[in-house]
Amino acid sequence: MVSSTECPVCGVAASQACTRCKMVRYCDREHQKQHWPQHKRRCRPFSEEQDAELGRYLKVTQDIAAGQIVFIEEPLVVGPKWYLSDADKEASIVPCVGCCNPCRLGKHQCRRCRWPVCSAGCEHESLECSVLSLRSGSPARADVRSLNDYFRGDALLVLKCLLLQRQSPTKWSALLEMQSHEDERKGTELHEEAEQRVVSYLQQRFLCRLKQTNPNLLHDCGPEMLHRLCGIIETNFMVIELPTGVELSGLFRQACMMEHACQPNCDFQFDNKTQQIAVRAGCDLRKGDHLRITYTNILWGTQLRQHHLRLTKHFSCRCSRCLDPTEYGTYISALACLGDVNQTCGGTHLAVDPLDENTQWKCDTCPMLLDGAYVSELQSHMTEHVEGLLGGCPSANQVELLLARLTHMLHPNHFHTFNLKHTLIQLYGNEAGLELGVLSNTQLKRKLRLCDELYNVCQRLDPYSIKLAIYVTVILIEIAHALEEQARRAPAEGASLLGLAQARLREAHVVLEKEQESVAGKKLSEKLQKEIFECEKLILTLSYSQDHDVDQK
Ligand SMILES: C[S@@+](CC[C@H](N)C(=O)[O-])C[C@H]1O[C@@H](n2cnc3c(N)ncnc32)[C@H](O)[C@@H]1O
């Protein structure tokens, strides 16, 4: 919706904008009042704005309290996941083309187009089905890899977009207004991959036949349009996680206008029944604030986030975190200074210019400078080690060993050490042979210290737990575990330690409110309920035994 310059009541040129949304103008108060019954359904506490750097974005026009729904919106398109990992390409469970429920590949197929459905009776949109029925050939083999390659979900998402030109001209034009970064994509790996996986696949399998059998069905389905749609998806898609664990991608006219920041102020939830997205204020928003979500992983260091944003969204983020070499004092990208050959200086290397991919890294204590290329090679080498280890369910001992090796080179809060420590706090107290009762006092203290370090990093990066609610909840539960165990060991301080544990669990309860709809949030919520109950039981048991002791004395 572009803001109109004519009064919707009488059509004359108008200058008084609706103060809430600034999207409609009136010639006078009387006509504004008259129009309110219609306008109130569209009037929202933000306006659509545009600027040379951000493109379109959303600006708050009146204060909004934390937790309040800012707007609810229907999708333009919802479809299969856009980025398919290697594991996805070998998955035997895929979303049903009809209802998106998980279904086993090869079990049921749509009677007409043969694409995977969850049950014989599950139907899908008829135009989509008739285009998919034009397929040529059949899967080379019946193994999951061949079937996944034959029924490509990411290509189906592009086809869903393409068919809007027939199904809904309004949605089609809204889709084409979205940024695609077409020019920047040309000649890149992403463009080449889109050509291989999506454009040539759709053309050879379905669209060439469509041109012969029904040339007037789609006005524009050539390779340029397909590439443009790939760019629109890449730039705008939002990740939707269903309660079944299925991940989908969605495009929304307005929600996709929200700009990126590495410290967001909004989050969103998808309702699978209505297919609507609800955008919510993650903290108190003031008039003039922009609505911001995060397009990348906020637990990555600046170089990695910037690289990801440049590669996929074609911009350099200049938010306050990206401009600050310490990243709000977390030092999450910082390296430990190795000093000269003889001894380390104990200092920390920080990027001289965090926005420059090739920046040098300067020690804050000695004159040592590190080259950008060296640092990025070191980082990716470490990524391999950390991901390799954490992907294989390691023991606490294995994690400690890698941590000890990396500690020489990284700041204690570096994102690689953050990941290792977040795993460790869950292993201490839960791994077989390292149950809470078996941990030494030193191990218990270490668990608590690691939890505190991780909690502080999360608080600085995401003070309202908009993105890190799950991480923070896990940390708070582990803190409570350690405090409860300390209370068991030192009954004299038991009451105060259990009080602290209970407070941490209550805090976790509040933090987890934000994740009520996600699969991980639901699971964790059940665990948290039990933890709260167990903690209350411990408190009662302790006060009973203390009362009992007093009586006996
Ligand atoms: C999801 S779209 C947002 C809506 C888009 N601005 C439009 O006009 O349709 C993402 C694109 O917006 C721009 N953008 C979003 N956040 C930005 C930021 N923090 N700095 C610069 N550009 C940004 C980039 O071009 C990015 O690829």
UniProtKB/TrEMBL annotation:
Signal peptide: none annotated. Residues 7-43 form the MYND-type domain. The keyword Metal-binding applies. Gene3D superfamilies: 1.10.220.160, 6.10.140.2220, SET domain (2.170.270.10). The keyword Zinc-finger applies. Keywords: Metal-binding, Zinc, Zinc-finger. It holds the Pfam family zf-MYND. One of its GO terms (molecular function) is zinc ion binding. Residues 41-296 form the SET domain. InterPro entries: SET_dom, SET_dom_sf, SET_SmydA-8, Znf_MYND. This is MYND-type domain-containing protein. It comes from Drosophila erecta.
